Amino acid sequence: MALYITIIGLILGFFLLVKGAEEMVRTAIQIAMKFNMPNSVIGATFIGFGTSAPELFASSGAALNGNLSLGIGNIIGSNIANSLVAISVLYLALNRDFKKKLNLNNTSSIWMVFATILFVSFYLMLKEFPLFLGIGLLVLVIFVTYKLVTEEAVDQEDLLIEEKDYVGLRAIASLTATIFGSTLVVNNAVDLAEYFNISSIIIGVTVVALGTSLPEVAGTIAAAKMKNPDIVFGNIFGSNLFNIALVGGVSVSIAPGVIETDVTAEMIIMLVASLIVILLSKTIVKKSYLIGLTALISYSVFIYTLF
What domains are defined for the chain? Predict the structure, then answer.
């Protein structure tokens, strides 16, 4: 019975976390537009932050509980899932007649690679996550946000959302749901790890990471139906960037130190997966069972090797 309660709590937590974060971003955008904030500011900050909001609350919640392993596992697993699962869904969901050469702004992808290399390199050298790394990542995210604001404008029509009443009340409710959902996810994920005698890092890389990557996967399906793969690649670059610089910076700053398991291999896989996405964004994008199934199988093998 205790196991069923834990699983139900985990599912409920995921639901509140994802839905709460989604509504939180929508209300934030609506508030920002009412105050006539520039399109680029809204796109670079609210949308970029929004795709990483579940990871931020789940990882920072784990760090606050003194469980940095779960938080780091969530970051690594989410970035790998974003890169492999989202790409798999895109290439399998596109129409047969679709073919497009993308013309993406390189800002997000360049800074994503830089943040990833920085994160991975420090861990490979020190085998821990020191406080100065967390602070450095937070400084980096401020700088990168400034660069995104000044270089990556977003068209107004891309940000139009249905106006709703009681914006302030919905903002508070969505924030509450997100925080409560993240607490449920973290607590029940830890309980699940203890029940099956599995390390927190593995639960973070698998269960928590997949759950917090649901917005990216759902967005990929929608973008594929709209024949707009640009959104998918931009979302992956932005989400992976904010996961490391913002989520990693907050988590490490809260609870710096050593984690329970060596994640050298997982770190390298995360970096390689990110580089593969960049290479794919430079090619002609069209429906491909080969790329889609290869990415999906690669992710499945990665998960299998963890256990």
Answer: 39-158+197-306 (1.20.1420.30)
